[in-house]
Amino acid sequence: MPQIHVGLIGLGNVGSGTLAILHDNARQIREKLGFDLTVRAICSRSLDRHPPAAAALFPDVLRTTDWREVVSHPDVQIVAELVGGTTVAADIVREAIRNGKSVVTANKELMAAQGAEIWDQAIRARICLAMEASVAGGIPIHAVLREGISGDRVEALFGILNGTCNYILTEMETRGEPLDTILAEAQRLGYAEADPSADIDGYDARSKLALLAALAYGVRVTPSDIYLEGIRRISPMDFSYAHRLGHTIRLVGSAHQTPDGLLLAVRPALLARSAILAHVGGAYNAVWVKGVHGGDTFYYGKGAGPGPTGVAVVSDLMRVAREIVNGSPERVSPFAHDRLREYAPISISRQVRPYYLRFRVVDRPGIIASLATILARAHISLEAVLQEPCPNKQDLPFVITLEPTSEAAVRQALDQMSGLDFLLEPPLALPMEPSF
Amino acid sequence: MPQIHVGLIGLGNVGSGTLAILHDNARQIREKLGFDLTVRAICSRSLDRHPPAAAALFPDVLRTTDWREVVSHPDVQIVAELVGGTTVAADIVREAIRNGKSVVTANKELMAAQGAEIWDQAIRARICLAMEASVAGGIPIHAVLREGISGDRVEALFGILNGTCNYILTEMETRGEPLDTILAEAQRLGYAEADPSADIDGYDARSKLALLAALAYGVRVTPSDIYLEGIRRISPMDFSYAHRLGHTIRLVGSAHQTPDGLLLAVRPALLARSAILAHVGGAYNAVWVKGVHGGDTFYYGKGAGPGPTGVAVVSDLMRVAREIVNGSPERVSPFAHDRLREYAPISISRQVRPYYLRFRVVDRPGIIASLATILARAHISLEAVLQEPCPNKQDLPFVITLEPTSEAAVRQALDQMSGLDFLLEPPLALPMEPSF
User: Between A147, A298, A311, which is nearest B294 by CB?
Assistant: First the structure.
C-alpha cells in the first residue's frame, strides 16, 4: 500500500486544526484513499518554548523550528504552508516547489498576490498546488468552481467573504451598538485582530474575491484593481433605515460579467431580506453563483476557525495525495483554467443600481430642496425620502433612495453636495443589490 | 493537443441541455481543459421521426436510434447515459463499461439500486464512472462530499431532494390550495409526471438519499431499507398550524450517524422558519451537512431542468476527460470511499424528536381528555394544544405538540387512538427537526 508523507509548517489555529483532523479521522481518510496519509514533519516557531497541544498528537515525527528542514526533508511529499502572510510563506512555498514537493496552502493573501506566478512555477516543477482553505474556510467553493460546476459559465458571483465584518454587522443589526463597541468586544474575545484594518477595511475580502474571480472567469486579477470600500461608515441607524426598506446590510464581494468586461467590487450593500444571502449571520461566509445555464446556486458555511479551515486543508491534502499516487500532477489547475487570461477591469462608475443615500444634517428649512436640486441636475430620480423620529435637530439623520442610477452619476452628485454647510459628514451611498 | 470524444444516449430534457451547453461553452471548456471535448455520436429513439433541436447543433456526428452503435463506436471514449430508468439504461452502462468506455450518468434510480455493482465492474475495467447529475441537479453535492469536504466526518445530513414535492408544498403554503389542485396544475404545466407517485410518495427522494448516504458514510445503502413517508397527507391547514408554531413543512431526507449506527429517513417534517433550510422554496433543492470538524455547511440550487442537470453532466464529462488524458482511471471513486462497507440500518423507532400531531374530529366533549389519557399512559408529555377557528363541528381540526419523544412511543400511542370513533382519519404525526 502506498503511503504519502506530509510536512506541516505553522501551528496556529489552522495548523492545529489540521493536525487534530488528520489524527481524529485517520481511519476514514484511509478508507477513502485506499492508503495512508502520514504526518512526517511539523514546524512551528514556538515548538521549543511552548509546543501547541496538537503537536503532541504526532509524537514520533520530526519536530523543528526551522521550516527549511521540512521543505527539504527527503520523505515529505506534500508541504502544508499554514504560516500566512506574504514574506516567509512565499519563501516556504517557492522553496518547497523547487524541491519537487506538492503544496497545500491556506494563504489567500499570498495566492491573490502571487498565485499566477506560483502556479507557473508549480507547472514547470510538475507538482500539485491546492488552496481550498484560502477562501471561505469551511465552504468548498474552490472545488465547486474548479470542478463541481465547471461546465457552466458564471454570469455573476456574490460573496460574504469576511467573517469578522459579518459578525460586526450582524451584532450591530441585532443589538444596535456602534462599530467601535462591537469591534472592541470582538478584539477582547479574540474574534478580531488587534489591527482590524485587513478585515473591516475590506482587504481580506478583496484578496478572496480576487481568487474567486480567477477561478470563475479564468482571469489574472490584481487585487488592487478591485473597487474597495470597508464597513467603517456603517452605523446602527443604517440598519433601522435598511429594515424599513425591507433590506439588511452586508459587506459583499461581487463579480459581474458584462458585455464590456468583468466588474469586481467589495463594498457594503443593501440586500433584500427575502434573499437567502441576507440570512447569512454572524461569522458565517456564503457565496452565491449565477450560472448562465445552471441558474442560481448558493454555498454557505463557517468562514474561519481551526475546524472548518482544517477540513479544507485536509481535503486538499487528500486530493493532492491521490494525484501523487496516480502520477497525475496538476490534473486540474488550482485556478480551474488551463491558463489565466489578462483582463481589462471595468470601472465601478458604470454599474447601475438603486441607491441608498444616508445624510446627517443640522436641521433647517430647505435641506431637501437643496439636495433634490443637485440630484435633479444630475438627472437622478428620487425614489423615496425616509426619516426616523429624532429629537436632536443638530444631528438629524435621514435617507433618500434613488431609482437605478450609475455609480458615476451618484459620485458626481455627492461631489456637488460636498460644499453644503448643513452636512455634518459626507453622505453615505450604498448600492441596493438585486435579489435572487 | 489530445481530444476526447463523447457519445451521448438519450435526448430528453437532460440530453438536450447537455448538448446545448457543450455547444455554447465549447470555448471555455477548451480553456479549462487545455484540449477539446468533442461530441462524436448521438442516440435518441426519436431521431428518425422528430429529431430534437439540440441534435442539430452537432450536424456532423453519428446520429442513430440504436444505442449499441454508440457504446461500440471505436472513437467514443465517454458514454453519457441520459436515458433514465433501470432497464435499457442498465444495459447501456454495463455494455459501455464492457467495451472499455468511461460512463457519465444522470440516473439516480439505477445508481441507487445497482451503483455498487456497476462501480465494481468499472474498477475491473479501469474506466471512470461519474454521476453528479443523479442527485440535486444543479448543486454539485457529489463533488462537495466526494472531494470538497472529504476530510471531515459527516454527523448528519438533511436534504430537500425532490423539486416537485417542494414546489407543491411551497404552493400549498403560499396559496392555501390542496395537494390535488396544485398537482393537477403542475401536471398540466409539465412540472409533474402523469404518474406522480415517484415524486410525491418519496421514492425519488429516497434514491437520492441512498446515494448521498453512500457518498457521505461510505456504506452500501439499499433504498428500501430507508424509512419512507410521502407528502399525500399534508394539507393547507398543516401550514396554518406550522406557521403558528414558527415552522414550515418540507419533505426532508435525513441521515444521522448515531453511536449505534446510521439512521436514514425520507418524510415530511416541520422546520423552524429561522433555519435557512426553511427558505428553500419552489423547485429548488438543498442539502445541509453537519460536519464533526467543519460544522454546518449548506448547498442550494435548482433540482432539475435541462440547464442545471446539463451543467452537472458537462462538469462530469470534463472531469472524466481529464482522468482519461492523465491516464488515471477512477482516481476518486464515485462513492468517495475506496470500498463501500455494509451497514446495519437503525430503525426510525429510536429517533427522538418533538412531534406535531394533527387530528380531524367530530367535535364533542371529552376529546382532549381521551387523547391526553392515551399519551399519558405512554409517558408522553404534551407541549401545547392549538386550534384554529373552525365553524364545522363535524370536521374540526386541531393540533397537539409533544415534547421530545421516541418515534416508537408516538407510533404506539397512535395505534391506541385507532379505535376512537370521533377521529375522522388517523392522526397525522410529523417530527419537528432541530434547527441549525
Answer: A311
Distance from CA of A284 to the nearest CA of B (A): 9
Whether residue A298 and residue B302 make contact (CB cut-off 8 A), yes or no, is no
Domain membership of residue B387 (yes or no) is yes
Looking up residue B373, the CATH number of its domain turns out to be: 3.30.70.260
Taking CA–CA distances from A147, the nearest residue in chain B reads B315
Model pLDDT for residues B146-183, shown as the tens digit of each residue: 999 999 999 999 999 999 999 999 999 999 999 999 99
CA dihedral B280, B281, B282, B283 (to 10 degrees): 0
Of the candidates A147, A299, A314, the beta carbon closest to that of B315 is on A147
- Kindly report the backbone phi and psi dihedral angles of residue A285, in degrees, each rounded to the nearest multiple of 5, phi listed first: -115, 160
Q: Is the pLDDT of residue A400 over 90?
A: yes
Q: Which of A368, A358, A356, A436 is nearest to A403 (CA)?
A: A356
- A150 vs B contacts (CB less than 8 Å): 32, 315, 318-319
Residue A338 lies in a domain: no
CB contacts of A143 in chain B (<8 Å) are: 140, 143-144, 147-148
**Quick one: B146 and B110 in the same domain?**
no
d(CA A217, CA A259): 14
ipTM confidence score:
0.94
A353 and A381 within one domain:
yes
Interface contact A328-B327, CB threshold 8 A:
yes
Q: Do B299 and A297 touch (CB under 8 A)?
A: yes
Identify whether residues B113 and B260 lie together within a single domain: no
pTM: 0.95
Domain match, B184 and B249 both: yes
Mutate to test the interface with B, among A25, A57, A311 (most CBs of B within 10 A): A311
At A436, the pLDDT band (50, 70, 90 cuts) reads low
Q: What is the pLDDT of residues B410-428, one digit of tens each?
A: 999 999 999 899 999 999 9
Domain that holds residue A15: 3-138+306-325
What secondary structure, in 3-state letters, does chain A show?
Answer: CCEEEEEEECCCHHHHHHHHHHHHCHHHHHHHHCCEEEEEEEECCCCCCCCCHHHHHCCCCEEECCHHHHHCCCCCCEEEECCCCCCHHHHHHHHHHHCCCEEEECCHHHHHHHHHHHHHHHHHHCCCEECHHHCCCCCCHHHHHHHHCCCCCEEEEEEECCHHHHHHHHHHHHHCCCHHHHHHHHHHHCCCCCCCHHHHCCHHHHHHHHHHHHHHHCECCCHHHCEECCCCCCCHHHHHHHHHCCEEEEEEEEEEEECCEEEEEEEEEEEECCCHHHHCCCCEEEEEEEECCCEEEEEEEECCCHHHHHHHHHHHHHHHHHHHHCCCCCCCCCCCCCCCECCCCCCHHHCEEEEEEEEEECCCCCHHHHHHHHHHHCCCCEEEEECCCCCCCCCEEEEEEEEEEEHHHHHHHHHHHCCCCCECCCCEEEEECCCC
Residue A190 confidence (pLDDT) above 90: no
Residue B343 is predicted with a pLDDT of: 86
